[in-house]
Amino acid sequence: MKLEWYSAPSSCSYKDGTLEVVTGDKTDYWRETFYDFWRDDGHFLSREVEGDFSAEVTVQGDYEALYDQAGLMMRLSESHWIKTGIEFTDGQMYFSVVVTNNQSDWSLVQVPVDTGGIRIRLTRHHEAIRVQYLNSENGTWIPVRLAYFPPTKTVQVGVMCCSPERAGFTARFKDFVIGPPIARELHD
């Protein structure tokens, strides 16, 4: 799978199936809401995907500073994108989702620390985006968000990481895949 950088990091390497990225200084994706600024310089390694899909990756990181984050992103433009993953806030790990349709919104749910990383999934069903993470204890996918996103023929999909308060956050991505969408059923 051929991937391209949007805002390439200062350092990255690929070894034993793991992509390791070291973030640049004060990188982020955000548009206006609450903070009154726009940032569009986080690190995003992606490819173009047509139609509906499911993307998954396992993320780990050396989370230390406020808002250190790593996960998945889908992007249509600087004003329409979704990023989701693990974010360090108030000294704890959270599963974070930012949906941006002109302005950004932010939702969080606390997750247990897992030294092996946390597997996350982003699924597109036309205009609906489903965001989940895998509960490693019982193997079930935990739903976190069902969000609207403008339906288009293609979007960019890939892994992202940011460190809005510093440089040098190390993020690791393993087993990144993009494939057909999971079934539309929301409940077993």
Automatic annotation (TrEMBL):
Keywords: Plasmid. The keyword Cytoplasm does not apply. The keyword ATP-binding does not apply. It comes from the Bacteria. This is DUF1349 domain-containing protein. It comes from Shinella oryzae. The lineage of its organism: Bacteria, Pseudomonadati, Pseudomonadota, Alphaproteobacteria, Hyphomicrobiales.
